[in-house]
Amino acid sequence: MLATRLEPWSELNRLSREMDRLFSGNRQGGTIGTVSFPALNVWEDDANVHAEAELPGFALDDLEICVMDNQLTIKGERRLPEHEGGKWHRQERGYGQFSRMIELPSGINAEGVSAELKDGVLLVTLPKTEAVKPRRIEVKAS
């Protein structure tokens, strides 16, 4: 008879993975686990504030972008893919609706905002108003 060695840590790790899978299966509400979705990078240059979001598998029709009161809101929905006659073996990609809102620096010209979706990355360009753009001041010698 073969002796079976008890591996308590491997069983706890397996249980932890199963709990993670169970509670993150339907990733709605703008979060995946404890991370906000979509992941965003926001930076600025002299003329614009830029927001970049990772949105693989989304089409423009699936997204809504709104700028109001120095807030950027990105909403969207990933639909559950249908596999007729098939059976799921693993489902790790989230689906459903999401909404992500971030505060922007003051002085955004909402009329000039543009957005481009390329290779699964959304780039939103938010032009600054003239009042907040840096100005070079000429110094005169006397």
Descriptive keywords:
about 140 residues; 3-stranded antiparallel sheet; elongated; 9 strands; 1 helix; 4-stranded antiparallel sheet; mainly beta; about 35% strand
Fold blueprint:
Elements: H1 8-23, E1 31-32, E2 35-36, E3 40-44, E4 48-54, E5 63-68, E6 71-78, E7 96-103, E8 114-118, E9 121-127
Antiparallel strand pairs: 1-2, 3-4, 4-9, 5-6, 6-7, 8-9
Short description:
The protein has 142 residues and is mostly beta strands. It has one helix spanning 8-23, and strands at 31-32, 35-36, 40-44, 48-54, 63-68, 71-78, 96-103, 114-118, 121-127.
Task: Report on this structure.
Helix content is 11%, strand content 35%. It has 142 residues and is mainly beta. Strands 3-4-9-8 form a 4-stranded antiparallel β-sheet, with no helix packed on it. A 3-stranded antiparallel β-sheet has the order 5-6-7, with no helix packed on it. It has a two-stranded antiparallel sheet with strand order 1-2. The longest helix has 16 residues, at 8-23. The protein is elongated, with a radius of gyration of 23 Å.
Low-confidence parts, pLDDT < 50 over ≥5 residues?
A: 26-34
- How widely separated are the two ends? 101 Å
Strand content: 35-45%
Mean pLDDT: 81
Structural class: mainly beta
Strand order of the largest sheet: 3-4-9-8
Write the H/E string, N to C. HEEEEEEEEE
Q: Give a quick account of the main beta sheet: strands, pairing sense, barrel closure.
A: 4 strands, antiparallel
